[in-house]
Amino acid sequence: MSFLEMLDVLNNGLIEKGEEPVVFDHDCREGICGACSLQINGEPHGPDRLITTCQLHMRKFNDGDTIVIEPFRAKAFPVIKDLMVDRNAFERIQQAGGYISVNTSGNTIDANAIPIDKHDADESFNAAACIGCGACVAACKNASAMLFTSAKVSQFALLPQGRVEATRRVLNMVEQMDKEGFGNCTNTGACEVECPKGISLENIARMNREYLSASLKG
Ligand code: SF4
Ligand code: FES
Questions:
Q1: Fewer Cβ in 10 A, N or C end of the chain?
Q2: Which atom of ligand 1 is nearest to the CA of 145?
Q3: Are the beta carbons of 2 and 61 closer than 8 angstroms?
Q4: Which range has the worst mean pLDDT, 23-37, 68-82, 97-111, 157-171?
Q5: CA of 110 to the centre of ligand 1 (A)
Q6: Is the minimum distance from the CB of 131 to ligand 1 under 6 angstroms?
Q7: Whose CA is nearest to atom 1 of ligand 1?
């Protein structure tokens, strides 16, 4: 059974006994939505690599093991109840610049009309794989959101469609990230190790370059 199915069984047992079930977050159960964010035996999304908690299976553990489950811990992710945290800080970072403006008045340019270097397209796609789960923050001793924010900045920075608002985007998203109370990056790299989508630290370096050049322009 999957890890979340194990929690379902636990909760069914608690409900049958008239006790309160344990609150935990989940939605797709397919590694897409990023909702199932749990700290399992001290690791975000548990002991496996490149998977989310909903993709973790109980065969990863031995019979009789004690499993310690905690909510993701960070000042910017307040605990709502039990294992569920409020990750709306990520939504507010996205709202600060994680979008592009497209003319939809009937003059929309076909995306394929703009040639894009294959390497840039691949890198942009890799950055866009971030599901906003927050494991990078939970893994970081500084509770930094640099990996998440840099993935969101990078996915647009690498494409011509994203360059139009690039200066404003990186300044606004970093400002919001700081406002939310996330810590700074000290290049520990725990975020990259624990990220279920393999988001690379190169995105942080790219965001720092974008930020520096945007600051000089600003
Ligand atoms: S960078 Fe990785 S760990 Fe961080 S929010 Fe995105 S998918 Fe989750
Ligand atoms: S429930 Fe959606 S990623 Fe796990």
A1: C
A2: 4
A3: no
A4: 97-111
A5: 30
A6: yes
A7: 148
